[in-house]
Give the backbone structure.
Amino acid sequence: MKKYTTLLLLIFPLLLQSQSSHLPLGNDAYHTMDRFEIKSGELMPAHTILKPFDRRDVANFAIKIDTSQTSIGKLDSLDMRYIFRDNNDWVANDIVKWEAGKEYVDKDSVFYRPVIIQEKGRNYYEESRKPFLKYFYRTPANLFEINQPHFKLKINPIFYARYGQETGDTSYVYLNRRGFSLRGSIDDVVWFHTNLYESQERFQQHVMGRIAQDSLPAVPGAGFYKDFQTDLWNTDGYDYLRGQGYIAARVSKHINAHFGHGRHFIGDGMRSLFLSDFANDYFYLKINTRVWKLHYQNLYAELISQHPQAGNRVLPKKYIASHHLSFNNILPNLNFGIYESVIFDRGNTFELQYLNPIIIYRTVEQALGSPDNVVTGMHFKYNFLKRFSLYGQAVFDEFMFSEVFGGNGWWGNKTGFQLGLKYIDMLGISHLDGQFEYNTVRPYTYTYDENPINYSHYNQPLAHPLGANFSEIIGKVRYQPIHPLVLQARVVYADFGTDNPGENVGSNIFANYLDRTIPEGSDDDEFGHQTGQGVSNQLLIGQLTASYQLRHNVYLDADYIYRNRASEDPALEYTRNYVGLSLRVNIAANTVDYWGR
């Protein structure tokens, strides 16, 4: 039965009709889509909590905004041009003829609106005026591109070089990443995407220490890794290979599927308490059903259980099944949704009962004898006044309603909450955008007993990177004075508790929750648990970033990062400053706030 199930999963997407490839997480278009949603006063048909977006949805919504009565300025128009260039799979496929005299001129860039050369609308497809060696960069976004009626292909390089120095460290922070991305379609029946890159990297000290000392080591966002040494920069680090790939297709007009290897993010905030993109990629099947105002997503994935350093053996597996239902415009500009997931271990075998796409997993889990880890949640997003977006999440790993309001600190109230606000064009200044967010997760949330079905993958949290037993405040201000330049200031403050040797105060999601530490002032381990218990720590992170887009998806970044950790344990205290420069091509910037804290 197992081999037939696997075969069905492999051939299922190939039997379907056309769909779209994903927009990579971290792409500039995600911020632009937020702005367009808020400014236009209408929600995207594709619900924004579910990421990554399909490129088709992004292009279609941008075209809708451009052809509507929504008032946009020249910087928004330049952002829109970026979207059309980056997603030209889904815009008209003829050469654009530029209309003289209708241009938006900035200090460092010029934007021309394309002529309406089609009777029923615009043509947004743009070709380069001077391709390189005739065949390369024939369009601004793609190194090599084929556009035939029954075959489309786009190939681009991936490159990320970072060099920096942190106080108190005699070695350099270093990143050397090379790879490629490829996407396309065949017969408008199957869409495919893959990217592959190799990295040699030395992180900041808080990450390097965690990797070297942890009994469950992991490189953030990666899987298998090796030690690395370079004489060029006189530094050590880690070498790892990452690859993502999937095929996408449409089952019907309202149902589509993606099948492959990658990551997902469920949330409207900077963090997610449901599912984040912090951990390594995983093998998955995702089915989206969009009809009327509803968006229903099923996600089935194979995860790696906690393990010591990998090498020359098959790692233990566990599995997750999740589904999410959201409702757009339940009231005008209000999105509301519910989430449920279950993680289980059947000795490298999938539990077939969780393949049911519409049942409540808790009922299945209880019918099986309640052996698995079920997490539920709800969320909302409300856009108002064409300037603001208020959003939030609530996650429930386990709780008893009578104890939630009992004030006794019952350990089983394993819950977390998020509340955030986005504010665009702050104080009336174009492209001065802010985002402010609060997250808190109670002790022992996402944990389990001796069974390794905690909420993790490849020794890394699947939700918030801090795990549990914390409160966090994040503020971010983003300013774009001219189109190629983005200035950003970010402040993170986290208050969290950690273990003394031999203790389990609920911050380590890999620890057995049956081995709970008796809270101070309590007679047993059942009650008296409070967020931040254990060794008290306060972490303050300040970051300033200037990012300049030299050409399409080619960025030069300069970063300054301040970290200060105060703690009841003096050995954990430090103050550090980091300064660095980066050059990246076709890849998003990455900063690791937490891993080793």
User: Anything to note?
Assistant: Residues 1-18, 94-121 have pLDDT under 50 and may be disordered. Residues 2-585 form a domain with the Porin fold (CATH 2.40.160.130). DSSP finds seven helices and 26 strands in the chain. The longest helix spans residues 74-86.
